[in-house]
Amino acid sequence: MAAFKLDRAAVLKSAEGLIDFVNKGPSPYHVVEECKRQLMERNFTELKEKESWEIKPNGLYFVVNNFSTIIAFAVGGQYKPGNGFNAVGAHTDSPCLKVKPRSNRSRCGYLQVGVECYGGGIWHTWFDRDLTVAGRVVVRSSEGLEHKLVHIKKPILCVPNVCIHLARDDHLKFAPNKENHILPVLATSTMQELQKPIDVSSCPAGSVARNHTPHLITLLCKDLSCSPGDVLDFDLHLADTQPATVGGALDEFIHAPRLDNLFNCYTALQGLFDSLPSLAEETNVRMVAMFDNEEVGSQSAQGAGSSLLEFIMRRISNGGSAVAFEESIPKSFLVSADQAHAIHPNYSEKHEYNHTPFLHGGPVLKLNANQRYATTAITASILREIAKKASVPLQEVVVRNDSSCGSTIGPILSAKLGLRTVDIGSPQLSMHSIREMACTTGVLQSILLYTSYFNNFTTLDASIKY
């Protein structure tokens, strides 16, 4: 189905759903919290890794790890241990600036916040933006240690550019030093004298509050209604305060932060929800796995490079034969969903001549001979048939031989589990910028594709002759 044949009202409704999701997800912790809310709204039950599980056919469940990774699954009504998994994998993190463990900096009368560069961001796009902080804070309470979300909903930080008159040559090729030049300004010492922040000097020696600008601690404590001495640690992400929105003269674009990869977190989850009416006839487990730390290699306890997904799949397979999990793998399939590069009108020479994905052209199959993507002829064929059933067009992308190729969680999980995998993503521009650009039709196309995948994979897989 061509993009222009999609119902405009349905396209905009889906796009607005994504925009709301992105605006509620300034950090992976907020993304997982919003996913939990949507899952519980639909009667999914949270399972704890430390507790025993009783998995039943037609059951709806989810598991959270580190508050930044979430795996949701719906058990088919005809499921038996040893049957397969129809999974979509995505990631909750995006390139950003993160507050350093000791961030208190001051120079030339400015109070600044030391930050680390997380992932491969286009860092010059972070200059001259209205920034804030969001993430999690670990607080000591009467009941023990508590994980609390924080999101300061006003501009409190800025990384200012140097004026052109002082560095004309620098602006010909702007390449800021990540240690010296990306230091956000929080306040001035002049105003600090007039508006005293919370006094952290009374905090015990070694207190985390002593390691940061008092004004930052003041904002956190006000938002959380706690005292500085109760703050044990935190993981704070800088985020743009400008909300995501629909744009373009024809209302066809989405301008937003973190589209890579909240786009696929949202659309995969909606696809799972939309497939639930057919769950009673399903023999497999339908799953959406959203991991943290993809942007830095996935090698963490909550990343796709860990054994987390394997452990969960094994526990679901419990109750069958001794090799029920091993029997499930050849019956399983993973759609590794991560955004794709649309052709850029001003840099068209950067794209391979015959592989130029367009906005509105449908989800993009990612292929790479050197296995940076996990797509094979078989897995691509399966997805083509699934897309055909949903009347969703597909595109393909291959990088130029003289260009480097990014990667996804697809090859990681495919190799780790021996799992058939296809890599796809919706086309977008400005990937890894503080503000990215996608198309409104891509949201609905992706939801329809994932819904078709959950509804049709098991039957289609049974028809394949190996």
From TrEMBL:
Coiled coil located at which positions? none
Q: Which UniProt keywords apply?
A: Aminopeptidase, Hydrolase, Metal-binding, Metalloprotease, Protease, Zinc
Tell me a GO biological process for this protein: proteolysis
Reaction catalyzed = Release of an N-terminal aspartate or glutamate from a peptide, with a preference for aspartate
Q: What is its EC number?
A: 3.4.11.21
InterPro entries to which the protein is assigned, alphabetical: Peptidase_M18, Peptidase_M18_dom2
**Which GO molecular function, any one, fits this protein according to its record?**
zinc ion binding
Q: Tell me the SUPFAM superfamilies matching this sequence.
A: Aminopeptidase/glucanase lid domain, Zn-dependent exopeptidases
What cofactor does this chain's UniProt record say it requires? Zn(2+)
Gene Ontology cellular-component terms listed: cytoplasm
Q: What is the similarity comment for this entry?
A: Belongs to the peptidase M18 family.
User: What interactions and quaternary structure are annotated?
Assistant: Tetrahedron-shaped homododecamer built from six homodimers.
Protein name as it appears in the record: Aspartyl aminopeptidase
